[in-house]
Amino acid sequence: MSTNPAVDTAPGMSAPAVGGRPPWLLRRLFPLLATVVMIIIGMAGTIWGPRYYGKSAWALPDDLWGTMIAAQRLVHLNLAGLYTPPTQLVSLPGAAVILIPVVALIDAAGLRLGLPDAHAAHPGTWLLAGPYQVAISAVVLFAADAIAERLGVTRPRRFLLAAASATALWSVTIRWGHPEDAVATGLLLYAILALSEARTSRAAWLAGVAVAIQPLVLLAFPVLLTVVSPRRLPGFLTRGAAPGVLLLAAAAAANWTATIHAVTSQPNSPRIDHPTPWIYLAPHLADGQVAAGPARILALIAACGCGLLAWHSWRARDMTSSAPSPPRATGAAGWSPDRLSEVLWWTAVALALRSVFEPVMVAYYLWPPLALALIPASRDWTRLLSAGITAVGLTFFSQIHWHNPWSWWTPMIAVLALTLFFARPRRVDRRRVSRGQLNRGGGSRLGSAAQVLPEPGEQFIADSAP
Known about the structure:
The protein is mainly α. The protein is 62% helix and 2% strand. The protein contains 23 helices and four strands. The strands form two sheets. It has a two-stranded antiparallel sheet with strand order 1-3. A two-stranded antiparallel ribbon has the order 2-4. Helix 9 packs parallel to helix 19 (381-397). The two termini are 23 Å apart.
């Protein structure tokens, strides 16, 4: 760390703590509190909430139980049954792997694991599965807070970030029971944080595990690859592919037909969920279902275009401002807060493409880009309040059951785009600010260092350039 006070407290960066960093519990207090509140309110809402509507059965997320059955089959080493009914698993095997601990606990307790029905309106397994899935999903809250700390976000804004993020996370966990989306997104955020600190290998493994849990993370790879040094791309891609390939190969070896059908076609039912205008082009399967796999390939192609746009935007601006090219995770230093915010925002845009091209949607599909977009928005109050209000509003508005292909999808995409617009990074030319401060007499206060002070990421790239 530099001994220059101007460098240590550069705009957008947190000032170093006196006497070292505070304890981890204090630094992550807000996501920890948000997790506890989510568990309490979520369990209370599912158990006692239905009484207000005259219902006696608990309001449980149906999707969770199929994945738990898949996890139970893994516990019993039944790989052949991983993708056979009633698991309804269409993600990679990692989605079931993350539930193995709670399923093993359920088995040890002698509880019956089955889909909720009229004969099991109050399954005791929910008392274990509910808090567990919220706890592992909270990794995304802790990752967001760690990045916000890295960006120098103040504690009041980090509190609001945790509150808004936890509220949006309700749709994924308590409402729909898909902790794999939250865990994968949280690991993706930690991968981006590792890249910002030039830990490329660690970032690749984190991103690879995220893909093995939820392939949605593949949409982020075109953006991530723009910030990895070309000489490290082969290693990054190899590590990023290894976890998913190994898990999928094991499942395919046990039951090739069921595994390949589930992973490639990824069937979804427009009679249960929300059809979109893309339903007219999607391949139709048996029982009125459609294949979502081809549309998701189209989203991945569009994400590659998003990565090119991000790279071109960085390159064009850096050439005009005589600044270095896009950040490369090659050394021991890190990116500037501006660049980290930009990478997060472009990644959020890439993840949003799934909702744009999906033939059949569920409300929680909208959540991953919201989780990422709120982080760069937290750098100032105006953007955080605007993006937070639209994100929370979209979370609850999306639960409405409209089945017309246009009437539900159109406003959802519009509000999602509005949230991304509010969260877009606003870059500040620090050299211009420094000159303005000097012209107003700031030179005597800031000294000559302010006139030439580079961004942290710029200093690293300049020092490591050949």
